[in-house]
Amino acid sequence: MPKPQYLIFLDRDGTLIRHIPYLSDPEQVELLDGVKEGLSALKAQGHLLFLHTNQSGIGRGYFSMQQAIDCNNKMLDLLDFETSPFEEICIAPEHPNETLIYRKPSAKFALEMAQKYQKKLEQIIYIGDAPSDLLTARKAGGTAIGVNTGDGPLRKKLKAQNLHQIFPVFDSFEEAVHYLLTNA
Ligand SMILES: [Mg+2]
Fold first, then answer.
1. Structure confidence at residue 4 (pLDDT)
2. CATH 3.40.50.1000, domain 1-126, yes or no
3. Residue 129 and residue 171: Cα distance in Å, rounded?
């Protein structure tokens, strides 16, 4: 049987690049270890990759959408793929107190992509360093894998929300990708 093709949604800050609160300067973009190789491995298996990043700094007026895009583009430069590894990118600019449209844990982006690419909701997978990333997948009907590479200890945060037995958490992107490729 052919392996199913997954829609893999990657968080940006703390997952693909080093977490810096309200990052807005492309010069501060720094890829985390194993990310380029991990994304290559996922693409090589035919999975579709998406970038889904919460950027409340836009809604808070700390920086502009263009600055967020510039940081994304710097990350893409550093990843140095022939073309962008991401099918689509969603930057959610909302302030947390606003009505959430695309801001995680809103599942709107994932659901739209599943419909657009004609995939089942079970084919949605999120990889991220925050409970909101993982909860987004769950809300969409998919699964999620945590990485402990971002803003504070993810396992502890999940435990505080009684979610620690639901999501696997790994200490590196490489381990998360290995888990995904062997278990998905
Ligand atoms: Mg993050």
1. 81
2. yes
3. 10
